[in-house]
Amino acid sequence: MSAALITELLTKRFGRQRAVENLSIRVPERSIYGFLGANGAGKTTTLRLMLGLLRPDRGTIRLFGQPVRRGGARGVGALIEAPSLYPHLTGRENLAITRRLLGLPPTETDRVLDLVDLRAGALRRVGGFSLGMRQRLAIARALLGRPRVLILDEPTNGLDPEGIVDMRALIRRLPDAEGTTLIISSHLLGEVEQVVTHAAMIHRGRLLMEDSLPALLSGPGSLEVETAVPAASAALLVGAGLIAEPGRAGRLSVRTAAGSAPEPQSIARLLVEAGHELRHLAREKPSLERLYHRQLALAA
Ligand code: ATP
């Protein structure tokens, strides 16, 4: 797949604060690319750099091979921070303002409303919209003029369960319906895992890892273990040559030194024979969440 966007050694500091540090990523064309990290990891700063809204201190960004210039990247639609919509106007009227500014025909309004599944709803005033409808309207606006890349900053933040399902469906259909490449920032790894084809994880402005979703999830297996005495159990397992790290919900994530899942029976025997009350033992399903925490531990 050719690249829609490439950054090379991208660096941005605010005073002494390193927001983005030597970040090199490659977003394949027509991918749904998750840009993931905790609050303050540098996601929004990177997206603003990609959009040409901030100037990097160092490094380059290329969009379909062309350098992104300060003042705005062409062919990129974006939804960053809360969308500015006029509440007293209908959804359609809100779209029409931008459509006219861009010199696009009225048919373009229907096209983008159909894409976000808001044709009927857009006849109402935006003041009465749910947050999910507002988000979809803002995405419709960002899709005016058929951008080749669409950047969404935390698109499911604050949405109710129904809004999240709608947003997921919308994100999934855009690459095929429009040929769009999507870059989605999020700190909700479990949510993002359901829609992305590729992902990058960042921490303190630096890249932890980047790959296709299947490659990221094909990582080493592990066991999830819970006992009544987690610290003692961790020490016992480490003493037996295993790697035992804090996992979800106070449980231990256990793997062999070679990085594979240990035999459950041998772990159970080891713990029970040492008198540790075993409460839970299961193979851990690979997930972005687990991978992220493992990478953080390695980076520490
Ligand atoms: P969040 O999800 O909380 O927005 P983020 O991953 O998007 O987090 P950024 O907003 O990019 O992170 O911030 C990265 C770091 O840069 C943070 O430590 C933040 O405080 C700092 N930062 C961001 N913008 C500015 C600014 N304009 N001036 C000073 N520091 C900033």
Q: Could you walk me through the main structural features you see in this protein, from its secondary elements to its overall organization?
A:
By secondary structure, the protein is an alpha/beta fold. The protein is built from ten helices and 14 strands. The chain has helices spanning 43-50, 91-101, 107-115, 131-143, 161-178, 189-192, 213-217, 230-239, 264-273, 288-299; strands at 3-14, 17-28, 32-36, 58-63, 66-67, 76-79, 149-153, 181-186, 198-203, 206-212, 223-227, 243-246, 252-255, 278-283. The strands form three sheets. A six-stranded mixed sheet has the order 6-7-8-3-9-10, with helices on both faces. A four-stranded antiparallel sheet has the order 2-1-4-5, with helices on one face. α4 (131-143) packs parallel to α5 (161-178). The mean pLDDT is 91. The structure holds adenosine-5'-triphosphate (ATP). Residues 14, 17, 19, 37, 39-45, 187 line the site of adenosine-5'-triphosphate (ATP).
